[in-house]
Amino acid sequence: MKTRKRSRAANAPAAAKLRRLRRAELPADTVRLARYLIGKTLVHSTRSGVVASGRIVETEAYPPGDPSGHAFRGKTVSNGSLFLERGFAYVYFAYGSSFMMNVSSERPGIGAGVLIRALEPLDSIGLMRRRRGGAPLRDLARGPGRAAAAMAIDRRCDGLDLCGTHSIWLAAATRRRGGLAVSPRIGITRAVEHPLRFYERGSRFVSRTSR
DNA sequence: TATGCGATATTCT
DNA sequence: GAATATCGCATAG
Description:
Layout: H1 30-36, E1 41-45, E2 51-62, E3 89-94, E4 98-104, E5 113-123, H2 125-131, H3 144-150, E6 168-171, E7 180-183, E8 197-200
Antiparallel strand pairs: 1-2, 1-6, 2-5, 2-8, 3-4, 4-5, 7-8
The structure holds a DNA duplex.
């Protein structure tokens, strides 16, 4: 029987330092928001007061009119959150196994979002690891489906205000971020060439290193 | 570390 | 019925 190492971050000491982002701080433009979010913190507060958090190290922009964006064919019952004011969560289920979270990114009525693709685990790493079936640290939130699982994000989070006082919210950076790198997006079949994926250069927690 | 491939649920055609 | 903003496992190097 393997003994599980107790996480030193179990009591989330760094959580006290987290400053909630106000909507006015978010750029009102999809691509600018995608760049802005690199280095910021995504936080999950449980009912019992435990706080799990991670640095956003990788995002993708799906701007208005993007043929690979979920809003491209117009508003439907499932993609409605993309059409909210910036700073709301759009969560959906893909490939039969993964939830993914976007941050709505334009003015009300305009469908666009920023996909959160990877996190560097910060607080409550033990909790995140349990949610991820004991995966190694580097793989806890490396990939959009993994990041959502580590933060307990599912369809109930769809439509939540990430600038509000809900279980999932955005916070300011906890430390200076490294250089910003740009690449084409991953896993799409249309508008493949556009350089709309952003990540922190050198981070071991991005889902795929530069090529 | 890198690549290949099957599984799986929801949505839209 | 087809496609999908993926993951985890297997295999090879």
